[in-house]
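Reading group handout, session on sequence-to-structure problems. Before we discuss, look at one worked example. The prompt was deliberately terse, the way you'd type it at a terminal:

> structure Alanine--tRNA ligase

The input record follows.
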Amino acid sequence: MKTAEIREKFLQFFESKGHLRLPSFSVVPQDDPTLLFINAGMTPLKPYFLGKKPVFPGHEGEWYRVTTCQKSVRTGDIENVGRTNRHQTVFEMLGNFSFGDYFKKEAIEWAWEFLTDPKWLGLDPTRIYVTIYKDDDEAFEHWTRVGVPPEKIHRFDADENFWPQNAPTKGPNGPCGPCSEIYYDRGPAFGSDTWADYYETRESNRFVELWNLVFPQYDRKDGGVLEPLPKPNIDTGMGLARVAMVLQDVTDFYETDEFQPLIAKIVELTGISYEGPSSVAHRVIAEHARAVTFILSDGVHFSNTGRGYVVRRLLRRAVRFGYLLGLREPFMYRLAEVVAQVMGGVYPELKENLEGVQKQIKIEEEQFLRTLESGIKRLDAMLANLKPGDTLAGRDAFTLYDTYGFPLDLTIEIASEHGVQVDTEGFEQALEEQQERARAAAAFSKELFKRSNEALAALAADYGGTKFVGYESLEAQAQVKLLLVGEQTIEEAPAGTEVQVVLDRTPFYAEGGGQVGDAGVLEWEGGWARVSTTQKNPDGIFLHIARVEEGTLKAGSTVRALVDMHRRDTEKNHTATHLLHAALRAVLGSHVQQKGSYVGPDRLRFDFSQFEPIAPRDLARIELLVNRWIQADFPVSYTYKPLEEARKEGAMALFGEKYGDVVRVVSVEGAIDNVTSKELCGGCHVRRTGEIGAFVIVAEESVAAGVRRIEALTGTGATQYVREMLDRLGGLSRELGTTPEHLLERVNKLQDELKAREKEIEKLKLDLARAQLGGSAAGISLKEANGYRYLAVKLEGLEAGALRGAADELLDRHQADLVAVGSGQHLVVKVSKKALERGLDAGAVMKKLSAVAGGRGGGRGALAQGGGFDLEKAFGALEQVLE
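And the output record:
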């Protein structure tokens, strides 16, 4: 019975018993901050167990019986996934639930009917066993009544058959109750243990738990008091993969019909066959591919915290195992498509979100593969000096983590494959020391800031913050309220002094919201100072970072503050970022959110949420939309409004900004294609969009997983950039003997010619290999060791591809069990099908040769290859390796 059929039968069965069928909830809990993920079928239904009326959108009335197949995530034992037959991170939980309606009698009768009736699953009733809570005589009575012999019912304590586990003695307070687990005997083919053995060991591959019926019938109070609930509930969970495993009579869930397409794709990508439980890498990749696809499809993104960290850890573990199978390019994103094909019918979000999920995965894979390469090389160097039984120092593991971003769990996993332990306590100590240094540095910096700002705090208390008058004017008369040099307050600053100047009012914009601080000059009778930038402290006091060029600047004096005219260029770029933001959302979608920005006089930079590169056509549309706003010469206005009112009007809030109760709203008074721009912003802007002049995008790139960056120019800078690009285009066209209009055609032709010559070179290399095999290598005779016939051949001027072809030809020509073919420092080892069946493994041979002949290689089964070898030593060691 296919997994999809089992799922459908279960839901149909309970619909026939008056249950409402609900689709799976997202794996991301709604309104439950205590959970990272939905971890059981009942989890999203908790409010209804606690008394909330069971009303569901799209379904009339109240439903006290519900059935679901719920996607669930459990990540407590990630390291065991792939190594055992039981552990999964993402699984499907079949469940039927009663909110104070039916109880044990119906739950047990229906479970028995569904499992044993030939109309449904048709399992052999004589092979069903049950466990119950030690004092649950009611469950015992119902089980024996439906036909389970008493000797097939085990009673266990609250550590095994109570939910939550040990609730009577340990809590927590709240709804709880006994449970009853249903097991199926798969027969002696899966183990020689008996049901009596299970009672002693609680471990078995033969007796598989299929279903857990939970009977929440008590309200636990302080002191372990169990008060009967006025309306007891039913909460059951049956693992779909386990049922499929039993009905399909396979060893484990990796061999069921939903996992086999994934395994087959992994075999296709790696060229390495799946050998069942011993193929841990295949199993890890398949399981984690499913988990990552499910979680991302429900809206989670890769990150360094929370859910995003969990899914990142799953992906990286799978990529690491793919690396062991020889995969050096992103591959997990391809498996996401298989997951969607297999399971998208019942979970449509897998297909609907596939494109975005694949793009996220590929970006994350590319980044981690770079980390993996550098980290593995460093770790290998560390492990080379250790032998099995040794311990890798915690500080070395921390160096990998701190310098290379190499996760500790991967260090432990790789080290364990060499028989080496990792000093995790030493790692934690090194991590704590680094954190302590960071805290100490932060404390010092805060103390220094505190001392230097005592005068600023007093000034803020007396006068409030600096009054900013720079929205409308670039100059103002102002009084010097304070002069600071480092942490010291001074009364006057002679020529040559670097000083922080505090004015009572200023036209200088202080750095914030992505916009750079203004530069300019301060003038007074007999002197002047150059302002390099302007900053603002938390009390709203502006600090003009200046150098006195002539005369002496005195506290209390009056100055003329003049902002550099480059501010006008900054204003163009700032307004352009607002237009760009609106254009991005219009063209790409409302998922675009600002993640950071830089606005200066020279350029603008805008970071935003997006999981794929922007297509050239879309980039052109975005650029055109901004330029149409500019050409329309719309007025740009600003008003002050209550924050909530501004948000209701649709004003966009900017990344990293903190807003007060009243906010400044900057609006472009006009729409292009019904697209408008309105944002909360304290920055400086043009009066009309036409002042921007022109807008050109000069770069679009990734800066982090799921975050893209656009850099652009406006005004004169944009015009100069276009002129430079046209000049380069013309020069390149002349070099290639064509015109700018035909440049792409010319480049494509040259690329075709290059590819044709590369193919010709590859053919010549193969011809060279064949020529050598027919010449000097033809006389080489087979050798034998440990019952294996082998051949070692050194060729000249060949790379890995040609060497693999030569190895195939030698295997066929000489009927050898193993062939080692090398050229330069390259080495290829191939094993015949018969030798493979006898247990000879090319990867194992390559590993041994690496130990004696240097180099590094990998592979498994019939093929292994590598580089950096001393071929004479490698060939000389073959006999010893085979022995």
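Points for discussion. First: The domain at 123-232 is CATH 3.30.930.10 (BirA Bifunctional Protein; domain 2). Second: The two ends are 47 Å apart (CA to CA).
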